[in-house]
Amino acid sequence: AAPLATNQLDVISATTAEDREFNELRRDLPRAASLGDAADILFRHLRRVIPASSWALYLPKSDSNEIGVVASSGVAASVMDSLRVPIGERISGWAFAHAQAVLNSDAALELGPVAKSFSVPLRYAAAVPVLDGKVVAVILAFSSEPFEKDHRRLLENAATLFASSVPESPGNGSDQAKSARHAGSQKPHIH
């Protein structure tokens, strides 16, 4: 009976931590002064509940049929700085085109062979569309270990909060979000 009780306590503890994190995210996102600040807040909170080594926020490009990284964080941030993906292609473009989450896809399908060359090799990717009546963005997480179904649920919940709370609609103004770049740091790169 002791292992079962310990497992139940672990579940309760994890649920309490998730609730606390999402309450803070719900409180902090509307306070963001820009899309870049909102991405920083989103990544900071998600890092606490999802074991990912890199994060990216993709928005549609107004000048093409592509989505591009507008904010990134973690070990692959410098590689993702200028990443643009045709809608429908790679992991992010597929999630955007089909409005569906992707869990545990090969990170190399998004980043190429460089994915496995980082200090923390990126083997898995999880993508969730950000929906605001239609797909307006995609959040991608990269990890060396497989994501769990709970991670997908957390990403989808975060995407819903992000869509309803960001200071500017993610569909417009991605070029307004600018910030200094810090390669490899935990602070997001905003483009």
Description:
- This protein is of the alpha+beta class and 191 residues long.
- It has six helices and seven strands, in the order ααββαβαβαββαβ.
- It has helices at residues 2-28, 35-49, 77-80, 90-98, 108-111, 149-165; strands at residues 54-60, 66-74, 84-86, 102-106, 124-131, 135-143, 189-190.
- Strands 1, 2, 3, 4, 5, 6 and 7 form a seven-stranded antiparallel β-sheet that branches.
- Helix 1 runs antiparallel to helix 2 (35-49) and helix 1 (2-28) packs parallel to helix 6 (149-165).
- The relative contact order is 0.20.
What can be said about this structure in brief?
The chain has helices at residues 2-28, 35-49, 77-80, 90-98, 108-111, 149-165, and strands at residues 54-60, 66-74, 84-86, 102-106, 124-131, 135-143, 189-190. The protein is an alpha+beta fold. Strands 1, 2, 3, 4, 5, 6 and 7 form a 7-stranded antiparallel beta sheet that branches.
- What order do the SSEs take from the amino end to the carboxyl end, as H and E? HHEEHEHEHEEHE
How many alpha or pi helices? 6
The portion of residues forming beta strands comes to: 15-25%
Biggest sheet character: 7 strands, antiparallel
Alpha carbon gap, first and last residue: 53 Å
How many E strands?
Answer: 7
Which stretches are poorly predicted, pLDDT < 50 over at least 5 residues? 171-191
Rg measurement, Å:
16 Å
Helical amount: 25-40%
| Envelope shape | globular
Mean pLDDT: 83
Helix/strand-derived class?
alpha+beta
